[in-house]
Structures are given as structure tokens and as C-alpha cells.
Amino acid sequence: MKALITTSMAAALALSVAIPAQAEISKRTIRIANGVAEDHPVGDGVEAMKACVNERTGGAWTINAFWSSSLGDDLQSAQSLRSGTLEMVVSSTSPLVAIEPALGVFDLPFLISNEAEADALLDGEFGKFMSDKMPSHNLVNLSFWENGFRNLSNSLRPVEDLEDFSGMRVRVMQNNIFLDTFKTLGANATPMAFGEVFTALETGAIDAQENPYVTIDTSRFYEVQDYVSNTRHAYTPFMILFSKPIFDTYSEEEQQILYDCTAAGQTVQRESGRSLSEQSLQRIKDAGLEVNDISDEAMAEIREAVAGVYERGADSIGADVIERVQAELATIRGQ
Ligand code: TK8
After folding, report:
1. Long-range contacts of 285-292 (CB under 8 A, 24+ apart)
2. For the chain, what is the domain count?
3. 92 CB within 6 A, ligand 1
């Protein structure tokens, strides 16, 4: 009897010794949904992430990215993650207010003023506070990447002051804060999924849309727009979301690989976006679009006009969340 126990214990020990470190990593296929085109900086981030995953898993994982809303728009994809039928999405936070209304905090007009502030906010305490809200919706936020500062494009006229927004049919993301902002500016705001924007601009169903230069460039909106105005009215983050039901089946080591490799992708994606932005602007100009800045005076008037969005947004976002972000930004700005 004693010998038997010893033998089986020895066998167990031999087995545990024989298991290589890699045993915690299973063969897996991860699909990533995306609304943007493959040549958007997100493409560079995904490539960096793939290289990292390949190295860490010894090639055990296959990552397939699907571009230009081919697996559905941001919100649909996030819903698929929640039900465990899709692994991953690179999604703007804005359309996800239908799932977590507090995410609307990022859409408050002129909240973030530059990229250094965005990075400090998203990679710091506040970003963690927002990410912590996601597991209750069956989602895991692995990292914040950059969509960026949004600028208005349209087919009617250069937008140089508040009056120029008047009556303009602007597509906004499916988001109450953006809707309020553009209505307050006097525009005729229509919520629409990203994948429908190009055709809506092309057919003239809408006059205008707003997105960072890299998106106006890579989604070829310049083909169906004539004016771009440097409004920088909001900064949108991308969340790198993973399906929690699927995440929960991963080993701890595998979960760590997801965090580490989306962080590696973040560095590359942000750098690529920031250097591409200038090139995109040049391509937009080369395509014959008229690009204009807005005077400080006109900008002050525009900011003043939308100031009430903060108070009205508190109902859905939560006054505590708005206070928290403002306190955090004050700290970041050294105020
Ligand atoms: C792409 C979107 C896009 C966003 C929008 O799926 O909807 O305008 O800016 O980048 O997330």
C-alpha cells in the first residue's frame, strides 16, 4: 500500500515536472472586429499585437482581424462579445453608451485638450475606473488605444464660426452626448453607425460627419466631402474589448498575454496614429478639400455654446463620474 502511494506520487511529480511552461497555453483563434480600414493606424497596432502574441504563444494562437465593419459595427460587435460569440473588438467608446452610459464622459465637448492628457487620463486611475465598469457587462477592456481628436468635414461650406453649423445635416455616433452637442450648435444631427457614413455622404443623405484626419483619410471620406474644419471638439478613445465569457476560459497566463500584447499594440498604434495624422491631413488637402482653422474668438463662442452639455449629460453619465474626470484632469494639468 505504502509502495503504491509512493509510486503514484512519484508519477504525479514526474508528470508535473514534465509539463512545460507552455502547457498553460492552448491553441486558440481570436477574431477581432473593426470599423476602420486596414490601413488605419489600428492596423499597425494589430500587427504589433499579433507579433507579440506569436512570440509569447509560440505560434499557438491565430489572430484574424476583420476590417471596415465586415463583422458588424462597434455596438453589434460588443454585443457579440457579451454573448460569447466573438472574441474581440476595437471599438470607439461612444456607441457603447447603450451598454454603459458612463462611457459618455469621454464625449463631453472639449474635455481633453491634447494627447499627453489623453494618455495620462486613460492609462491612469481614471482609465482603470472606467475599465472596471465593463466586467459587469460581460466585457473586459484590455487597453485603451487612440481614435483621436475629431474634426468636422462637410460638403457645404467651411465651418468658421457657430453660425456655420446651422442646419447642417451632420452624422454623429449613436451617442446622446454627441447628439446634444451638435443639436446645441444648431446642426441637424443624425445618429448613424460608422459603416453607413460613406454612402450617406455620397448620396447626399447627410452633409457632414466628424472624425480624426486619419479616418477621413483611410475611410476615403475625402472623396465625398469638400471642406474640413479643425474643430477638435472631442477626443475619442478606442477600447480593446474582449469577451468576458471567453476570457474566463483562458488560463491566467493566457489572460496576461492578452493584456501585455494589447499594451504592446497600444504603443505602436498611438505612435503610428500621431505621425500619420499629418500625412492624412496632407492627403486630404491634395485631394482638393479646403481645410480651415477656427479663430480663437470663434472657438471661444463655440465652447461657450456647448458648455450646458456637461450638466445635461450628468443624468446619463453620472455627476460623480464627471467630477472625477475633471478632478483627474486638473491633477494631470498641475492645477
Ligand atoms: C469605427 C468607429 C469610428 C468612430 C465613428 O468602427 O463611429 O465615427 O470614430 O472610428 O469606431
Report:
1. 287/222, 287/223, 288/226, 289/153, 289/222, 289/225, 289/226, 289/227, 289/228, 290/158, 290/226, 290/227, 290/228, 291/227, 291/228, 291/229, 291/230, 292/158, 292/159, 292/160, 292/227, 292/228, 292/229, 292/230
2. 1
3. yes
